[in-house]
């Protein structure tokens, strides 16, 4: 029975991922059984036609593989995903009597969809559960409905032809759930595949394992021969077929000449050069697009509880030990004479958690959180609703327009809706807040709360029990003891223990435990930067000193590249990867490390040895960036020096800086 491919496929028009495709082709060729065959650039990049004798049915099976070597995460809404699903739908329509399986093989990892995706797990993971038969009954119905509704809400990417998109729409409109389930069960997501270098390594290992007497050098030569053969075949017009018999012939006596090898090597070098240039251009285009997209930032936001979907820190824990503070905040709201309140507290002590829970409890008041990276303009007051509103500015030391905000609340019309302002700040930012308040507001309008301290020991113990869960509850007292002054450490450390990612034995030493918590946190960000550059931790340490990092700032890209011994485009790609992981958060003034306490740890661990001596990191950063980022450097290192002097008054961190 003939297979009818989608018209217009031509490998010669595609450079990116070409070597990846050749290496995967060789890997599939090595796995062929007698009677099976590979067809290249027929239905998709690689079609494996499985003989009826090897299939789970009485007919041949055709596995269509689409290959994508990319660096970013993939979701069901990603253009590559929608293109693959739409093409599969079109293949099924064109070949109703053929048993077709489709596989998207990609180096990308699975990401999480944004709204309107309705389930907690990523859509691709839900698809996989259906595909392998892990869901049944009501759970299966819910999953099918969620996937169908999500795909219906997606818009057609430019990469997808009208014909393929129409085939997808027809599949989604089909009323029979069994038809849609059949489509899902026949589509495989092969994510997280190794790069073309990794595939080449596996191919060489396979070739060497076939004959233990073969040396690594012989396997390398065999790989070269097969690579040249595949390149030569892909460059030919017409059908491109590979069989097991052809493989055995090429392994025993290669048909490739020296000229073929030279041509293949030259083509590989040329493709790699073109790929590098395209990647560089795409990176620059992406940077320009991000710049243009950052012209405006919302002045206000409402914080969301991030949930426990794999994150190590969020605000979902029960609030413990803050009854007195909640009463103080309630009196602030009730006092018509007080318009501004100031709540100081060091990083990690629970200011944000307290304010989120308190603001969520307000019934008659609207609460708006001020984006510390936004700009106050004449239009900003229009975003404040015509009802009683409490404005909350967290980390006020980062908000450069605090004076405008205070002036707005202080000058409020008493006959209109009520306006109140709550300012939360680190101790190191209190001087800035106090100075701004003195200029813009009467002291009679202001209530200054005592510095927020850590919750009482019983409250910390309850938090520890909650995050550890019943399996590790026996360690709750030890966890509460070593993290008693910083609830954020309680939460993150407890979750790491509960997940088995750090040993409870570390609880015997509070310093070792804290270092292990943040070291693991940093390790979650680890990985090499593109093209074998430095580690992401090295980039994060630099960001902790420079932040916020402006993506519009070419000086940072060039200087960071020189500092880390990589290219500027690799700097921007590394920042983008870290933002995708949620470690960097974006604001008008640039990218910052989240949570703040993690940024503090990174900067201190990079700058100061356990003995208290300077590592020289601060000196090196000042030498490289003081001409362009002096104000940021002074602020970040001054905060670090202030923290160090609270426990070691003889800090000499900044002594060598000129």
Describe this structure in words.
By secondary structure, this protein is of the alpha/beta class. It folds into 4 domains: 11-190, no CATH class; 300-448, Rossmann fold (3-Layer(aba) Sandwich); 457-508, no CATH class; 525-647. Helix content is 49%, strand content 10%. It contains 23 helices and 14 strands. The strands form 3 sheets. It has a 6-stranded mixed sheet, with helices on both faces. β1 (37-40) and β2 form a beta hairpin. The model is unreliable at 9-16 and 305-310 (pLDDT under 50).
Q: What is the secondary structure topology, with strand pairs?
A:
Layout: H1 18-30, E1 37-40, E2 46-50, E3 61-68, H2 79-94, E4 99-106, H3 123-131, H4 137-153, H5 162-173, H6 177-185, E5 187-190, H7 196-210, H8 216-234, E6 241-243, H9 244-252, H10 258-293, E7 300-301, H11 323-334, E8 340-344, H12 351-361, E9 366-370, E10 389-393, H13 402-410, E11 419-425, H14 430-440, E12 446-448, H15 457-468, H16 476-482, H17 487-498, H18 510-523, H19 536-546, H20 554-564, H21 568-580, E13 584-587, E14 590-593, H22 596-607, H23 617-647
Parallel strand pairs: 3-4, 4-5, 8-11, 8-12, 9-10, 10-11
Antiparallel strand pairs: 1-2, 1-6, 2-3, 7-9, 13-14
């Amino acid at each position: 029975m003939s297979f009818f491919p989608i018209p217009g496929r031509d490998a010669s028009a595609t450079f990116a991922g070409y070597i990846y495709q050749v290496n995967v082709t060789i890997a599939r060729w090595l796995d062929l059984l007698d009677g099976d065959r590979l067809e290249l650039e027929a239905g998709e990049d690689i079609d494996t036609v499985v003989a009826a004798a090897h299939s789970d049915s009485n007919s041949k099976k055709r596995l269509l593989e689409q290959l994508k070597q990319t660096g970013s995460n993939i979701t069901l809404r990603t253009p590559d995903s929608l293109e693959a699903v739409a093409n599969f739908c079109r293949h099924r329509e064109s070949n109703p009597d053929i048993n077709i399986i489709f596989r998207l093989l990609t180096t990308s990892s699975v990401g999480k969809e944004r709204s309107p995706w309705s389930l907690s797990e990523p859509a691709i993971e839900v698809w996989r559960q259906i595909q392998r038969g892990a869901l049944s009954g009501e759970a299966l119905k819910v999953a099918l409905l969620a996937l169908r509704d999500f795909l219906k809400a997606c818009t057609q990417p430019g990469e997808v032809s009208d014909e393929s998109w129409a085939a997808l729409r027809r599949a989604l409109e089909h009323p029979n759930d069994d038809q849609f389930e059949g489509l899902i069960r026949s589509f495989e997501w092969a994510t997280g595949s190794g790069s073309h270098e990794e595939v080449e390594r596996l191919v060489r290992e396979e070739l060497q394992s076939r004959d233990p007497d073969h040396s690594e050098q012989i396997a390398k030569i065999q790989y070269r021969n097969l690579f040249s053969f595949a390149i030569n075949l892909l460059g030919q017009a017409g059908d491109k077929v590979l069989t097991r018999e052809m493989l055995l012939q090429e392994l025993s006596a290669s048909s490739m000449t020296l000229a073929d090898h030279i041509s293949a090597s030259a083509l590989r070098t040329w493709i790699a050069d073109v790929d590098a240039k395209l990647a560089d251009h795409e990176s620059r285009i992406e940077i320009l697009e991000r710049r243009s997209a950052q012209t405006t930032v919302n002045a206000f936001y409402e914080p969301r509880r991030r949930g426990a979907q794999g994150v190590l820190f969020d605000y979902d824990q029960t609030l413990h030990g803050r009854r007195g503070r909640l009463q103080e905040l309630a009196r602030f709201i009730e006092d018509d004479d007080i318009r501004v309140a100031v709540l100081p507290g060091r990083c990690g002590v629970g200011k944000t958690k307290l304010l989120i829970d308190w603001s969520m409890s307000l019934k008659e008041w609207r609460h708006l959180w001020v984006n510390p990276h936004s700009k106050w303009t004449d239009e900003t007051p229009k975003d404040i609703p015509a009802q009683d509103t409490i404005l909350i500015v967290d980390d006020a030391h980062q908000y450069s327009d605090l004076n405008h905000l205070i002036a707005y609340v202080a000058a409020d019309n008493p006959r209109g809706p009520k306006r109140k302002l709550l300012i939360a700040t680190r101790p190191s930012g209190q001087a800035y807040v106090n100075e701004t308040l003195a200029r813009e507001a009467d002291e009679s309008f202001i209530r200054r709360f005592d510095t927020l301290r850590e919750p009482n020991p019983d409250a910390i113990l309850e938090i520890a029990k909650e995050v550890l869960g019943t399996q590790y509850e026996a360690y709750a007292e030890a966890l509460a003891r070593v993290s008693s002054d910083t609830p954020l450490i309680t939460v993150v450390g407890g979750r790491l223990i509960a997940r088995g990612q750090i040993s409870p034995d570390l609880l015997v030493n509070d310093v070792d435990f804290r270092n292990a918590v943040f070291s693991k946190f940093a390790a979650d960000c680890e990985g090499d930067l593109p093209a074998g550059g430095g580690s992401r931790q090295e980039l994060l340490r630099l960001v902790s000193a420079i932040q916020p990092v402006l993506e519009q700032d070419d000086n940072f890209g060039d200087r960071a590249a020189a500092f880390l011994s990589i290219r500027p485009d690799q700097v921007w790609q590394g920042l983008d990867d870290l933002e995708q992981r949620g470690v960097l958060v974006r604001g008008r003034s640039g990218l910052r490390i989240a949570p703040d306490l993690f940024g503090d740890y990174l900067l201190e661990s990079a700058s100061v040895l356990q003995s208290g001596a300077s590592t020289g990191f601060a000196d090196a950063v000042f030498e490289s960036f003081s001409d362009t980022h002096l104000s940021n450097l002074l602020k970040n290192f001054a905060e670090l020096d202030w923290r160090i002097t609270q426990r070691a008054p003889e800090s000499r961190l900044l002594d060598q800086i000129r």
